[in-house]
Each structure stands twice: as structure tokens, then as C-alpha cells.
Design a protein that fits this description.
The complex is a heterodimer of chains A (about 425) and B (about 350).
Chain A: H1 9-12, H2 22-30, H3 34-49, E1 54-55, E2 68-69, E3 72-73, E4 91-95, E5 102-104, H4 105-118, E6 122-125, E7 132-137, H5 139-151, E8 167-168, H6 182-192, H7 194-198, E9 208-211, H8 220-223, E10 226-232, E11 237-238, H9 240-260, E12 268-272, E13 282-286, E14 291-296, H10 305-309, E15 314-315, E16 320-326, E17 340-346, H11 351-371, H12 378-385, H13 387-394, H14 417-430
Parallel strand pairs in A: 8-9, 9-10
Antiparallel strand pairs in A: 1-3, 2-4, 4-7, 6-7, 10-16, 11-15, 12-14, 13-14, 16-17
Helix pairs in contact in A: 2-3, 4-5, 6-11
Chain B: H1 23-27, E1 32-39, E2 42-47, E3 52-58, E4 63-65, H2 66-79, E5 83-86, E6 92-96, H3 102-111, H4 143-152, H5 154-158, E7 168-171, E8 183-189, E9 194-195, H6 197-203, H7 206-212, E10 218-223, E11 226-231, E12 249-250, E13 257-263, E14 278-284, H8 292-308, H9 315-322, H10 324-330
Parallel strand pairs in B: 7-8
Antiparallel strand pairs in B: 1-2, 2-3, 3-6, 5-6, 8-13, 9-12, 10-11, 13-14
Helix pairs in contact in B: 2-3
Classes of the chains: A alpha+beta (about 425), B alpha+beta (about 350).
Pfam family, one (chain B): NIR_SIR_ferr
Protein name (chain B): Dissimilatory-type sulfite reductase subunit beta
Cofactor (chain B): siroheme; [4Fe-4S] cluster
Chain lengths: ~425, ~350
């Protein structure tokens, strides 16, 4: 039995209503743990005053420089003593999840047991960078909890100016749109740079994210320094039985309005079967006895819309790989930045392909480490130095797929134009 | 004087997920053909060799006590096949290889208070941050805001009645850890930091704080004989970037830290290219424990989107079709001068055409 609970009239109001209540969970923990009694008091005080009361500090585990988020209370009495003394330290362990966030009940129960013993009993699945967050341990218990978690085969994630914990989608394990082995790429990258996760020494954070197709369920373009997104080069695959089944259920109006009409590059047309092009770059599939969809794959930008609507009837091609974009992040400091293309396509299947990918990631991180200013993200660095300087630094050739449009102003020194034309032509001839 | 022997960490990095994955998913890895949704909250995937797997998705509170996690495990062991996974929005997924197990699993989840839904054209769980519970710089809470809003949006989670999927996020400061979304709720500060000059010299690395400011409004200064920092309050955009590296520059305020609503963020490449969200409402009070003023605006925007958007139009696609003037009119939100972008590159957000809807 824990000590007497504090009055929590604000938090109590979050126990009603149909959605699962975290407050009810906190109260269950507070039955046995003084720490959680005081954590509830601490949180209630924030609700009353509309202010936060945690400060950071320095807490770590032996051998690592990051991965623990230290939290010390700032609610003190007139003698500078913590008002909620059993929650005066409430540190978090960030632990990297398996790719796709798969678990069995055995490992989850082990997490629960060790965290009930060493910590508060509160675990978040998952934080915004993908970490399992074991929330609420004293400084003394952080090492004990980590040792047990580590022995189970799990490791701390990133914090501060470091390579950060990554996320990958459910991907190949259960999604027909998957265009590469997301989990393998995720592990290959993160486990290569694990030293840069555990010993923060970069100018600022560096995030990888892995999405199996351009639906980008991991939101990698907007929130990772290196976004690895599945795509394909050959023709969209089709399945006539599933196409006819779809058409029988949805009809011509939906086919025209929701599929043909919403293609962003007008690559899809509805045609009489006899008029369908025989061109090698065309995919087609009959939807009934007389009409077929015709897709010009040269015009298709692999946006996924038609495949999302008619899943199975239409599917990504077989010549799969990834597009890599660099530099996404949210506002601070210079304004929002999307990741932009640096590798339009690369295969990611053989051991050699994965080595090439890791080599690219290594060159990118090395260049970032040497050239970014303190607290500057990859995208901000590229904004400052220009994409060309970045590409030269990581030894990647220019490609028109990297731009939405060529330059619209003449303000550039171009005295190297002729040599550059010769170089580009020589490269094309050699390819 | 020898130190106690410390355990050396095993730098194992990310574990192999195959050891935790449902066996049918291991067997059919990379070989799935298509899926459909028999009902909201349930996915049915079929592989090229004919294997089938059913997934039941349920909402959680994300911040879970061990008793809740053990309950979820009990359900997995008794009604599913012992394997679960989590989505990026903290929904839990149970996988079963037999359709007959779906209905009893749903019943058990619902009986224990875990709503089944969040698939397809639903409003899924709100992606969120730590807030008052654990963050060192929050101006509001996260889990509480989400609990309050999901209570209001409960039916939209359990049904698939929206034009396309709806993704929400909340963030307790302008760093926006919750991320881009169809609709996001983010703190917006309205007053410059209040500086405790007695503490700055001891706590803050002053050049680093000066460098952090996006509008160069901070400069070193001697105040009351102590080295400190001062803020040009006319230049300050109240973003709060100086607060994390320098806690004596208090930016959070119970009254002046307001909530803003942003719409039209889209990370998918489907149809249009990915888009950033845009601010459409501001000045909403930070009003725990249930933030009713925020909930009212969120529900209003979602209602007009639901009524007016065509099938497959995400929030951004819908607004692109109807135009911003009609969005503000339909959502009954005032368009003010503060919503005109004057940050660098902001000119790209002006209307350089005669494309005007009358």
C-alpha cells in the first residue's frame, strides 16, 4: 500500500468519457507506489497553475552519453525541498523498438515486470521518435532498469545531438504496397551508427525514417534528415479478377471520379479494350467486358493514389527499390523544410545494395558532422550552402529528378558551363 | 579506492523484429497481395499464396500503466495468437489467422474499454507529446488534451465515415513534436520571454542562446551589474526557441500561451505532393482539464470537412478544391492579417494569379 493520495479534482475529470484514461492508469499505479502518488500531485499542480515543473539535468548509464531523459521537480517549498518528494526524480529511458513495432506478450510482460520493480510502472508505446519510453525512475534505479532491458536484447535510443532512434512501417511483414525490406534497412542503418546514437557528438540530431511506399506512413519526408521511401521503376502490375470485382462493387462513376480523375499527372485513361495501347510502358486492366484502364507508366509519378483505391487490382511493379530524400524538419530555426530528393532510385535487395546505402548514409553523416553549424539540421545546412555543395560533398551526381523546376533567375556564375556539359555528356556516354 | 565494477552495455542497437512477429507475417514477409476492410477497425490481408491474416486495431492511452499492458497481453494470449504491434499513432494491433477469432477479440477489447477502430477513413488516435507529465518545456499538457479530444471524437475513431483518413496531432510548444497532420493543435506564445537576470549567467551559455533566435532579437547585456541577455521585444516572434537552452527566459504563460489550429498537412505523396499544414485559428485558451474551446473548433472543422469533401479528398485536397476563402467561411473562422505568411519564402504563399472563386 502506498501513501495517501493527493486531491486531484482536475485530473479526476479525465477519468470519465469513453476513451481509455491515462489518469485511471496512473491511479492504479499510485495504489502501490509513493512515486506515483506524488506524480499525480505534481501533474495536478500543473493543471491548476497551467505551467510545467520539470527541469533537465545529467543522468546516464555507464558507457553511454545519451538515451536517458532526466527530469527533476521544480516544485519546491520555502526551504527549497521538493513538495512531491517521491516524484522529485522522474527520469525516462528511451529504448529502441524493433522495426515495425512488433512484440509478443512474453517480451511485453518482461518489460512490465522489470519496470514495476525498478521504475514507476508507466510505459509509453511509443514516443514521437519511436522509442519505447520507460517513464519514471530515480537516478539510482536508471542503471538497474537499463541493465535488465539491455539483457533482454534491447538498447537505448538517441537524445541530444546524435543519430536518433528510427521508425519503419509495418511494411513487408503485412502490407502489399511494401517496396523494400524496411526492417533490414532500418537495422542496417541504425546498427551501423549505434555509436553515434550512444555518444552524441554531431552538430545536432540526425534522423532516419523508413517507409515502404510513397504513402509514407512514417511521415519521413517532413520529419527525418534521411527519408528512405520505397518505390518501383517498371510498370504498375494489374490483376483483372480483382479489377472486375472492384468495378462490380463501385461502378463507373467511382472509377471515373475517384481513380481516373484524381491521377495527378493524368497518366490514367479509361478506354475501350480494343483501343488500349500495346506500348511496353503501358499497364492496362479490363474492368468489364468492354472497358479497360490504361496507365502510361512514363507519366506516372508513383503517387500511390490509384493503387490505394483499387488495392490488389493495381499494384506496385516488380523492379522495386527506394527514393532517398534529405533534410526534412519542422520549423525551428529557419522555417519548415521538406526532405528533397538526392537519390531518385536505388535498388535495396542484395548485400551489395545495402552496403551502397550504408556508404551513402555514412558520407552524409560525415559531411553533416564536418560542415553543419552547432544546432543546425541537415536541411538547414543545405539551405545555407546550397544543394550543389552538399551533393559534391557526398559525391552524388546531379539529376533533374532533384528539382521541381530549373532555376528561374540568372544570378549565378556560369563560367564552367562548357566543361560541365562535356563532363555530363561523357558520363552519359559511359553509362 | 577501486570503483565498483560497472556492467558494460551491450550495444545491440535495434533488435530483430522476426522473433516477435506473428508467424503468418514471417511466412508471408514481402509476399502480400491485397487487403480489404471487413468492418471499421479490422484489416484483412491476403498473400500471393492464399494465406490470410486478420488484424484488429484498438485505441490505447499511449501512456500506459503496467496493469493496462498486462490486460492487453491477456487479451492477446486468450483471444488472439500472442502477438501484437503498435502503429505510429499508439494504436495496438492484434493479428489472427482465423476469421472466427475476430468477433470474440473485438468483444473482449471493447468490454475492457479499448475502442476498436482507427482504420481507413476514420479519425485515428491523436499523435502527441509529453506535456506537463514529463516535458521540461511544455506550455500545456498532451495526454490530457488527447484524452479530452478523443472522448469527443470517439465515434469518428470507431467508424469510417470521413472522406479520407484524418490524422490529428497536438504539441505543447512551437517545436511541434506532435508533427504535421490534417489538423494540428499547437501552442502559440504571444508575449516575449520574461527574463530572470539573476540566473542567466549561471545557467545559460549566452552565445548559444543568441544564435538560437530565428530573428536575431537576443543580445548579450549587463543587467543590474550581471552578465545577462536582453530581448528586442519589437523583433521577438515569441517562438520560445531561447527557452530550452536558457530556462530563465520564461516563455510559457498560463494566459498568454494560446492554442492555434493548423490544417492541411499531408505527408503522403498520394495525389498531390506532401504539404505543410497552415495556421487557420489562434487565440484559443489553454483551458485544462478538457480544453472545451479547442474541442469546439476542432469538431467544427471536421464537421464541415466531413459534409463537404469528396471521397478520397484529404483535408488539404478538399481545401485545394474549394479555396481558402470558402474554407474560412464554412469553418466560421476569421481570416486575419496574422495569417498572411511574411516569413522567408512566404511570398510563395501569396496568390500570384487571377484564380479567384466567386
Amino acid at each position: 500500500m502506498a501513501k495517501k493520495p493527493h486531491a486531484t479534482p482536475n485530473l479526476d475529470q479525465l477519468e470519465s468519457g469513453p476513451w481509455p484514461s491515462f489518469v485511471t492508469g496512473l491511479k492504479r499505479l499510485a495504489k502501490d507506489k509513493d512515486m506515483m502518488v506524488d506524480l499525480l500531485g505534481h501533474l495536478e499542480h500543473s493543471y491548476e497553475t497551467r505551467q510545467g515543473y520539470w527541469k533537465g539535468g545529467t543522468v546516464g548509464v555507464f558507457g553511454y552519453g545519451g538515451g536517458i531523459i532526466p527530469r527533476f521537480t521544480e516544485i519546491k517549498d520555502e526551504n527549497d525541498q521538493p513538495v512531491f518528494k517521491d516524484a522529485a526524480e522522474f527520469h525516462t529511458l528511451r529504448v529502441m523498438p524493433p522495426p515495425g513495432m512488433h512484440y509478443n506478450t512474453d517480451i511485453l510482460r518482461k518489460f512490465c515486470d522489470l519496470w514495476e520493480k525498478h521504475g514507476s510502472g508507466l510505459i509509453a508505446f511509443h514516443g514521437q521518435s519511436g522509442d519505447i519510453m520507460f517513464q519514471g525512475a530515480t537516478g539510482e534505479n536508471v542503471q538497474k532498469a537499463f541493465d535488465e532491458i539491455n539483457e533482454l536484447g534491447f538498447d537505448l535510443g538517441g537524445a541530444g545531438p546524435a543519430v536518433r532512434t528510427s521508425m519503419s512501417c509495418v511494411g513487408a511483414s503485412r502490407c502489399e504496397q511494401s517496396c523494400f525490406d524496411e526492417a533490414r534497412a532500418h537495422r542496417a542503418a541504425i546498427n551501423t551508427f549505434v555509436g553515434d546514437i550512444h555518444r552524441p557528438a554531431l552538430p545536432y540530431k540526425f534522423k532516419f525514417k523508413f517507409s515502404g511506399c510513397p504513402n509514407d506512413c512514417m511521415n519521413s519526408i517532413q520529419r527525418s534528415d534521411m527519408a528512405v521511401i520505397g518505390t518501383w521503376r517498371d510498370n504498375i502490375r494489374t490483376d483483372e479478377a480483382l479489377a472486375k470485382k472492384w468495378f462490380a462493387k463501385h461502378g463507373l462513376n467511382e472509377l471515373v471520379n475517384d481513380v481516373v480523375g484524381m491521377c495527378p499527372t493524368r497518366a490514367i485513361q479509361l478506354k475501350e479494350i480494343k483501343d488500349v495501347s500495346k506500348d511496353a510502358n503501358v499497364s492496362s486492366v479490363a474492368v468489364n467486358d468492354s472497358q479497360a484502364l490504361e496507365i502510361n507508366n512514363k507519366d506516372c509519378v508513383r503517387c500511390m493514389h490509384c493503387i490505394n483505391v483499387m488495392t490488389g487490382a493495381l499494384a506496385p511493379g516488380k523492379d522495386k527499390g527506394v527514393t532517398i530524400l534529405v533534410g526534412g524538419k519542422r520549423t525551428l530555426k529557419i522555417g519548415d523544410l521538406m526532405g528533397t530528393v538526392i537519390i531518385p532510385f536505388m535498388k535495396l535487395e542484395s548485400d551489395e545494395d545495402f552496403e551502397k546505402f550504408i556508404d551513402l548514409a555514412q558520407r552524409t553523416i560525415d559531411f553533416f558532422a564536418e560542415n553543419a553549424l552547432e544546432h543546425e539540421r541537415t536541411g538547414e545546412m543545405i539551405e545555407r550552402i546550397g544543394l550543389m555543395n552538399f551533393l559534391e560533398g557526398i559525391e552524388v551526381e546531379v539529376d533533374p529528378n532533384m528539382v521541381s523546376a530549373p532555376r528561374t533567375n540568372p544570378f549565378v556564375r556560369m563560367d564552367g558551363w562548357d566543361e560541365e556539359v562535356a563532363r555530363v555528356k561523357a558520363r552519359q556516354a559511359a553509362a | 579506492m577501486s570503483q565498483p565494477q560497472m556492467r558494460k552495455p551491450i550495444e545491440s542497437g535495434v533488435p530483430d523484429n522476426k522473433q516477435y512477429m506473428h508467424p503468418l507475417m514471417v511466412k508471408n514477409y514481402g509476399n502480400w497481395k491485397y487487403h480489404d476492410r471487413p468492418r471499421p477497425g479490422v484489416l484483412h490481408h491476403v498473400s500471393h499464396n492464399g494465406d490470410e491474416i486478420w488484424t484488429v486495431r484498438a485505441g490505447t492511452q499511449r501512456q500506459m500503466d503496467v496493469h493496462t499492458i498486462r490486460k492487453l497481453c491477456d487479451i492477446a494470449d486468450k483471444f488472439a495468437e500472442g502477438h501484437v504491434r503498435f502503429t505510429i499513432r499508439s494504436n495496438i494491433e492484434y493479428m489472427v489467422g482465423d476469421e472466427k477469432k475476430v468477433a470474440p477479440l473485438i468483444a473482449e477489447l471493447e468490454k475492457n474499454g479499448f475502442p476498436v477502430g482507427g482504420t481507413g477513413n476514420s479519425v485515428s488516435m491523436i499523435s502527441h507529446t509529453q506535456g506537463f507529465l514529463h516535458c521540461d518545456i511544455p506550455a500545456t499538457d498532451a495526454s490530457g488534451v488527447v484524452k479530452a479530444l478523443m472522448d469527443e471524437l470517439y465515434d469518428e475513431f470507431k467508424n469510417e465515415e470521413m472522406p479520407n483518413r484524418v490524422r490529428l496531432s497536438t504539441s505543447c510548444c512551437e517545436i511541434n513534436c506532435g508533427g504535421q497532420a490534417d489538423l494540428a493543435i499547437i501552442i502559440q506564445h504571444t508575449k516575449p520571454p520574461r527574463i530572470n537576470h539573476d540566473l542567466v549567467a549561471n545557467i545559460c551559455e549566452r552565445p548559444a542562446v543568441v544564435a538560437r533566435c530565428p530573428v536575431a532579437a537576443i543580445r548579450p547585456a549587463m543587467v543590474n551589474g550581471k552578465p545577462s541577455l536582453e530581448v528586442d521585444e519589437k523583433k521577438c516572434v515569441c517562438c520560445g526557441a531561447c527557452f530550452p537552452p536558457c530556462p530563465p527566459m520564461a516563455i510559457n504563460h498560463p494566459e498568454h500561451s494560446k492554442l492555434a489550429i493548423w490544417v492541411g498537412g499531408k505527408n503522403s505523396n498520394a495525389r498531390s505532393k506532401p504539404q505543410f499544414m497552415k495556421m487557420v485559428a489562434m487565440g484559443l485558451p489553454n483551458n485544462p482539464p478538457r480544453w472545451p474551446e479547442v474541442a469546439e473548433v476542432v469538431k467544427r472543422i471536421l464537421r464541415v470537412y466531413k459534409e463537404d469533401a469528396r471521397p478520397w479528398e484529404r483535408m488539404a485536397d478538399w481545401i485545394e478544391r474549394i479555396g481558402w476563402p470558402r474554407f474560412f467561411e464554412k469553418a466560421d473562422l476569421p481570416f486575419t492579417k496574422y495569417l498572411i505568411d511574411d516569413w522567408r519564402g512566404g511570398r510563395a504563399n501569396l496568390n500570384a494569379s487571377t484564380h479567384i472563386r466567386f
